[in-house]
Design goal:
Strand content: 25-35%
CATH topology: Ribosomal Protein L22, Chain A
Number of strands: 5
Radius of gyration: 16 Å
CATH superfamily: 4'-phosphopantetheinyl transferase domain
Number of helices: 5
Helix content: 25-40%
Largest sheet: 3 strands, antiparallel
Order of helices and strands: EHHHHEEHEE
Strand order of the largest sheet: 1-5-4
CATH class: Alpha Beta
Distance between the termini: 43 Å
Number of domains: 1
CATH architecture: Alpha-Beta Complex
Length: 146
């Protein structure tokens, strides 16, 4: 038997923590509600204290990396259609809904995995997903595409 293994796609994104902190200061709730889900916002709070720009930046990086893998030529899905969900174990996973979920299904992409990290004022996310052989592959993004 010749079973073809799904191809693995990977995207990496770096985000400056200060850039996210500035966006939160400048646009406040409007920015938060446009980009992040209620779950994400609640995970980035510190016991009733201020939101963690570091944690928000890591989630923003995960959203960007996921959208790179989806590679929409037009009609980019909204930020909130990609959600970083924190599990009770503390690990994170991605949940796609709406336009992002439809695009992943159309392109035969999934499941998606995410790893978040930070260092020296930068937050990073690595997102991987499988793609079924014979399905449309996401286009490769270059840094100049951003």
């Amino acid at each position: 038997m010749n079973h073809k293994r799904p191809d693995l796609q990977t995207a990496v994104e770096l985000v400056e923590v200060d850039a996210v902190a500035r966006a939160v200061r400048r646009f406040g709730d409007r920015y938060l509600r446009e980009v992040f889900t209620e779950h994400e916002i609640s995970c980035c709070g510190r016991r009733g204290g201020p939101l963690s720009a570091l944690q928000l930046a890591a989630r923003f990086a995960a959203k960007e990396a996921t959208l790179k893998l989806l590679g929409p030529a037009a009609g980019r899905p909204g930020w909130r259609s990609v959600e970083v969900v924190r599990l009770p174990t503390g690990a994170c996973q991605l949940r796609l809904r709406g336009a992002a979920a439809r695009l992943a299904l159309q392109r035969g992409l999934g499941p998606f995995t995410v790893s978040l990290t930070s260092e020296a004022g930068l937050a990073a996310a690595v997102v991987t997903c499988g793609s079924a052989p014979g399905t449309e592959q996401p286009r490769t993004m270059r840094s100049s595409d951003q």
